[in-house]
Amino acid sequence: MSSTSTQRPPHANRHRAWVAQLVTGAVVLLAGIGAAVFILASRGAAQAKWVEAALVTAVFTVIAWRLRGVDASGALAGAGVTLALYSSVGLRGFALLVSVFAVTWISTRLGRRRKQSLNLVRDAYGRTATQVVANTWIAALFALLWSARPDFLLMLPMVAALAEAAADTVSSECGEAWGGHARLITTLRPAPVGVNGAVSLQGTLAGVAAAVLTAGVAVSISLLSVRGATIAATAGVLGSLFDSVLGATVERRYWLNNDAVNLLGTLAAALLALACGSGFHLP
Question: Which pTM was predicted?
Fold first, then answer.
């Protein structure tokens, strides 16, 4: 007697994953719209401010999607995050988000031939909804908290979370593009480029530069002082290294996936910055 397999074909699994990403993106978009409506209404914002927030979000989302920085689901989630940031922090928060998008998008395009030869090219159609959430949700959360209680100590973790996201992406992409020798961060043993938890000197330095650049933008648009930006950049780099430790341990054992690890990395950076800001009694 022959048996019938109940295993789903690969294309069916891909379809289910695609639908799940679209649903996630739609949920994040609705959450962002709800947050924006609540914040703008509570502030008694003029109609022009509502139109401005919607227009800026729409234009940025379309550009990010057309550049293949995000796929369709990532565009929905990104629109939700953008609305939350813009309604909470205003044009300055949006400018910081754009700067992080720009530096990470550029880094994914570097060393394309080498990445292809090593089979390391990912996200050909852009980041998915869960990837967008993993890298930006913590920053959006602290932006919303700041809108309810405008305190420097809540701005600090927002910037640190974005600095970590930039550092993590840029270090990975530049390490894969130019890293000569990689080592596992937990044991320092040689490891192939692109392996979870593997770091290289080139990639690490590029990640530090990305965190410093993000914090520098925050200073230039008067979101943070130089001292606060130093804390945010340092927390971002340490959060990125923590991300690598998680990649070398729990992710390699399949206890967590990459999105969960990225989320924890941004959370670690935000909490570290918050603790340091409180400890140094920054204004």
Answer: 0.92
